[in-house]
Amino acid sequence: MNYFLVSSILISLIFGISDASKCSDCIASGKHWCVTVNECGFSPCVTSISKALNCPELPDKAHAYDDAFVRSKILVTTAAAFNNHPDKCFKNAMPTMSLSKTFSVNCSAEGPQTNCFGFTSFDTTQKVIVMSFRGTQGATQLTEEILDFFTGKKLFFPDAGHIFTYFYDAFFFLWNGGLSQDIRNLKYKYPGYELWVTGHSLGGAIASIAASYVVHTGLFDGNNVKLVTMGQPRTGDYDYAVWHDKTFPYSFRIVHHKDIVPHIPPQYGKDELFHHRTEVWYNNNMSTTDPYHICAEADGLYCSNRQLDSYPPDHLTYFDINMPDWGSQGCPKM
């Protein structure tokens, strides 16, 4: 069964995707778009949209989500970041991929030292360059991330909004710790290759920033980048999400069932924290036959945001495996 097609049809019926432009025009006029009846300013309205970024929209066919591609390729590059020797994962699960370099830095500007890890790799068969980043490791790092949610954000670029200080610093510690030079070398050596940027949890936030940075600075074209994250926390504000969505036609945030991390920090507040598109929600165990939902809103009260509770193991288990454990073991054949 083509779950993408089925999900797209259902979402189109529910959200009225044909009315996306009407929704945007409605919000631009200062009114809300009533999803319940697909009308502008209708009141009372059970479900309404007040942010233009939540006007229903799906990726075009050329940039459609592919579950098989993510399971066979992206899952490997994401899990490999949990191993200090990512090439062990490549040997077992993606033999055409070659490790370029690893980067391990202290990513705490203040307080106890905590580690951030990432790697670059390349594949001359698939014609791909990869940047991948490790997720949160240990209680100290998790505490620092949570505390940072209360201390504010840094300006990313004047036209690209703000991102959380911890994520911002973590990326630039890695970038200045060797990532910049190596990704430039790979780009020079393989100028026509596609760039995949991946990460889980904290690594997902860093991946979002990394992809944005190399495109904003002109190193890569956004049309030649595939950004896929898993369990990514909210990384920046509404302006960052808007810029991101205008820049990347292929960008997916995968969320497993009741994973709590994609819902922190809370969306609403003085800084209007917001996810960029496009969420792919697996409301199940993520086995090979399980369906998924391509979410028409960027960060609305649909898909995973409908969950009122959480289940911590869902943050570690993606595609029916404990991803950090699998990666640290060298991605053995399943």
TrEMBL record:
Keywords: Signal. Residues 1-20 form the signal peptide. The keyword Transcription regulation does not apply. Residues 130-267 form the Fungal lipase-type domain. GO terms for biological process: lipid metabolic process. The keyword Signal applies. SUPFAM superfamilies: alpha/beta-Hydrolases. Pfam families: Lipase_3 (PF01764). This is Fungal lipase-type domain-containing protein. It comes from Caenorhabditis nigoni. The gene is Cnig_chr_III.g8851.
